[in-house]
Write a structure and sequence with these properties.
Radius of gyration: 23 Å
Structural class: mainly beta
Strand order of the largest sheet: 1-2-3-6-5-4
Strand content: 35-45%
Largest sheet: 6 strands, antiparallel, barrel
Shape: elongated
Oligomer: single chain
Number of domains: 2
Order of helices and strands: EEEHEEEEEEHEHEHEHEEEE
Distance between the termini: 8 Å
């Protein structure tokens, strides 16, 4: 996963020394970096379904100045002593001082470690440390128009992507003819079975060339959305203990019966948009609309191939697959 770095004086760290959301302390951040790692133990093979849950580690290292009470200026000596001990649960929030559309706001509970400060008379000049969250923080995207859900501290789209332009505004062509589709070496999209009525539920299908295009494939041109690399899907799967049912929309309104194990407990709401094969035909064994969700992974698999993440109507696991880059699959972005 990527490491996030934010520089400047417009980012604030809010702290509640009692573990709540009544933030009594605010730090003007000069830098903050978010780092996370996941170790996945593969019990079968690199492409096998039996990946056992790994260990998630998340932390925020920060440097700041002007530790103060957001209402009254100087913080109390009691709050300062609690903070510097680093032995108690705190509530925390990292947010821009003046957020604009698309800005990230992260918050949760945890504890502070590796604290260092210089202060006199309970007024801190510099303050550095690391936030170790308890569980998964909540990430919200300020004023975003894209439906999303926070899973494991990251926001994922809850609908399949359905854009017709790259992030810079250039058009992505629709290609319906199967022969033309099979010959593509650049980005394109289509409806499943070339049927526009499928779009409201299942979105559009894209070839991998559109995913890999440097102009960017994302919703509403909001800068933080990206097509997930394999590590991002690993993190998502580990967060839900590799339970594909937790990612699938429940019921059989869109999935074929029996929609094994589907609870959508994560809120990801995967729907089975089906596959357009590299030769331009639609569907196939277990890959028709209603049967499977195949989501492109941003990583190439080498040669003319690329990876996907798959969920199926008759399976409850999570699966990685290999498709020709000319295939048409669904896309879900996450906020990186």
């Amino acid at each position: 996963m990527a490491e996030h770095k934010v520089e400047g004086s417009n980012m604030l760290l809010f702290i509640d020394p009692t573990g709540g959301t009544d933030y009594d302390i605010v730090v003007c951040l000069t830098s903050v970096s978010k780092s996370d790692s996941v170790t996945v133990v593969d019990a079968a093979s690199a492409c096998g379904p039996d990946k056992s849950p790994g260990t998630l580690e998340l932390s925020y290292a920060f440097e700041g100045q002007h530790l103060q009470d957001p209402d009254g200026g100087q913080i109390s000596g009691t709050d300062l002593r609690i903070l510097l001990r680093g032995e108690t649960t705190i509530g925390w929030k990292i947010a821009p001082e003046a957020p604009v559309t698309g800005d990230e706001i992260e918050e949760g509970t945890g504890f502070l470690s590796e604290l260092s400060s210089t202060y006199a008379f309970d007024s801190v000049g510099t303050f550095t440390g690391t936030i170790q969250p308890y569980g998964n923080p909540t990430l919200s995207i300020y004023n975003s128009s894209t439906p999303s859900v926070n899973i494991g501290g990251y926001n994922w789209m809850t609908k399949n992507l359905s854009v017709t332009t790259y992030a810079n505004g250039d058009a992505i062509p629709e290609v319906s003819d199967p022969t033309a589709w099979a010959a593509l070496t650049t980005g394109a999209w289509c409806y499943y079975n070339n049927d526009p009525s499928t779009e409201p539920v299942y979105g559009r299908l894209y070839n991998w060339f559109a995913v890999a295009d440097i102009r960017g494939l994302k919703p509403d041109n909001e800068y933080g959305w990206v097509v997930p690399v394999e590590a991002a899907f690993n993190y998502l799967f580990t967060t839900v203990s590799n339970d594909g049912g937790a990612l699938k929309e429940a019921g059989t309104a869109h999935w074929l019966a029996p929609n094994t194990g589907a609870t959508n407990s994560s809120g990801f709401t995967a729907v089975p948009g089906g596959v357009r094969q590299a030769n331009g035909t639609f569907g196939g064994s277990g890959e028709s609309i209603g049967e499977s969700s195949e989501y492109w992974v941003a990583n190439s698999a080498g040669g003319d191939n690329a990876r996907s993440e798959g969920l199926y109507y008759n399976e409850s696991g999570t699966y990685y697959n290999i498709f020709d880059q000319n295939a048409g699959l669904s896309v879900r972005c996450f906020w990186d």
